[in-house]
Design brief:
14 strands, globular, six-stranded mixed β-sheet, Metallo-beta-lactamase, Chain A, 29% strand, single chain, alpha/beta
């Protein structure tokens, strides 16, 4: 059984997740830690629980989701998994930092790319990959069908969707992707978003104002 620990980090109240199982193996998703205090919060949790980070996973590469990416790579020395269409977003990190008023070094990590319909293995459990662009060109959602949950990044939120006024954003594309790839999942499927509270597919189908 998987457990998920959420951390709320940085100026955007971004959700960073540690996903782990009874074998103490773990994935670190969207490391948004931007200072020493936030980095120590993740590292402390991982150390105290005896977890081994096997992958660093990105839902997408916007600045608030990757502020701790270099730290995570340097600390745990495992590849970073993402969609190739967001590599250009990652490469814009320094410029994005300047717009927010702070300096960020260029990221130098080992990348592994995933695509639509790929599957990632986590100790025999499968995570399906859905490419759902519109918030960013390479936004992906990770789905564990057995335990009925998705890590949605900034694609779908409780009562909302990802903003589409950023670089290569596309409102129609995002809405269509959510309808055709996420809303066909079991209504009980939990949604762990990049910001805000968890929700479920069934709740969002019924109450999310963008789909009424």
């Amino acid at each position: 059984m998987f457990q998920i620990q959420a951390f709320v980090f940085n100026f955007a109240s971004e959700n960073t997740y540690v996903l782990f199982n009874e074998n103490k193996n773990a994935w670190l998703l969207d490391p948004g830690n931007m200072n020493e205090q936030e980095s120590k919060a993740i590292e402390g949790f991982i150390t105290e629980n005896g977890l081994k980070i096997e992958k660093i996973i990105l839902t997408h590469a916007h600045i608030d989701h990757v502020l701790g990416l270099q730290w995570a790579f340097d600390t745990y020395k495992v590849p970073v998994t993402m969609h190739e269409d967001d590599k250009e977003v990652l490469d814009m990190l320094q410029a994005s930092g300047i717009r927010f008023g702070f300096q960020i070094p260029a990221v130098n990590v080992d990348l592994e790319y995933v695509n639509e319909d790929d599957e990632l293995d986590f100790d025999g459990e499968k995570f399906k990959i859905y490419h759902v662009p519109g918030h960013s060109p390479g936004s992906v959602v990770y789905h564990n069908e057995t335990q009925k949950f998705i890590i949605s990044g900034d694609v779908l939120f409780e009562g909302s969707i990802g903003r589409t006024d950023l670089y290569k954003g596309n409102y129609e594309q995002l809405i269509e992707g959510i309808k055709t790839k996420l809303f066909i999942l079991n209504d009980e499927t939990q949604v762990f978003s990049g910001h805000g509270n968890p929700t479920t597919i069934g709740f969002e189908k019924e109450y999310n104002p963008f789909f009424q």
